[in-house]
């Protein structure tokens, strides 16, 4: 895709989804301190203001180039950014899009990931008419697996040695969700 996309604002339970801003650097700093998030994302493993700003600019570039929709997950009651979710469109010509999400450690267990995943999935399947959504979860990550299943995703199978994480090939579990099918 090469057409610029506009990241919309979406309601997600007690959270809102919105585009990234430079004011979100404290969230990038929190994610950089996590031992896992930098291994599976482009979050810098060592935070500096310059690296944080580069991360935010990458999010802007993703929507500007049509690669996808990067959202910040913001807790509504105090406007606190707690994580991110992205809808990536690389495989849209084949009728599918991929989702990815993370929540900064201090905010896990608040339901942010599940609310965001449900909201973006409904929007993608409905408004954008994407036929299939998919996401990948490492087999040990039971919290993320539960989040996917609660949002209507079904476990489809294990993809052996699918992705490099921290310098080693790791298995990933594929989860899928499809829109309504004709009868």
The CATH class label of the domain at 10-130 is Alpha Beta
Helix content: 25-40%
Task: State the low-pLDDT regions, or none.
Answer: none
The averaged pLDDT comes out at: 95
What about the largest sheet?
Answer: 8 strands, mixed
How many strands appear in the DSSP assignment?
8
Shape: globular
Please give the order of strands in the largest beta sheet.
1-2-3-4-5-6-8-7
Number of helices: 5
CATH architecture of the domain at 10-130: 3-Layer(aba) Sandwich
Distance between the termini: 31 Å
Rg from alpha-carbon coordinates: 16 Å
Name the assembly state: single chain
Secondary structure category: alpha+beta
Secondary-structure element string: EEHHHEEEHEHEE
Characterize the structure shown.
- This protein has 5 helices and 8 strands; from the N terminus they run ββαααβββαβαββ.
- It has 183 residues and is α+β, with helices and mostly antiparallel strands.
- The protein has an 8-stranded mixed beta sheet with strand order 1-2-3-4-5-6-8-7.
- Strand 1 and strand 2 form a beta hairpin.
- Keywords: Acyltransferase, Transferase.
- Pfam families: Acetyltransf_3 (PF13302).
- InterPro entries: Acyl_CoA_acyltransferase, GNAT_dom, Ribosomal_N-acetyltransferase.
- It is an enzyme of class 2 (transferase).
């Amino acid at each position: 895709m090469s057409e610029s996309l506009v990241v919309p604002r979406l309601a997600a339970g007690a959270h809102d989804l919105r585009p990234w801003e430079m004011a979100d650097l404290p969230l990038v700093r929190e994610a950089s301190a996590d031992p896992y998030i930098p291994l599976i994302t482009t979050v810098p493993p060592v935070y500096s203001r310059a690296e944080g700003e580069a991360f935010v600019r990458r999010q802007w570039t993703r929507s500007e180039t049509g690669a996808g929709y990067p959202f910040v997950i913001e807790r509504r009651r105090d406007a606190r950014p707690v994580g991110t979710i992205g809808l990536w469109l690389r495989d849209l010509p084949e009728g599918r899009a991929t989702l990815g999400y993370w929540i900064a450690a201090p905010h896990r267990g608040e339901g942010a990931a599940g609310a965001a995943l449900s909201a973006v999935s409904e929007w993608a399947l409905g408004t954008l008419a994407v036929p299939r959504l998919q996401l990948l979860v490492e087999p040990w990550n039971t919290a993320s697996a539960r989040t996917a299943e609660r949002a209507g995703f079904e476990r489809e199978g294990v993809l052996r040695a699918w992705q490099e994480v921290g310098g080693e090939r790791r298995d990933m579990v594929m989860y899928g969700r499809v829109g309504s099918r004709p009868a």
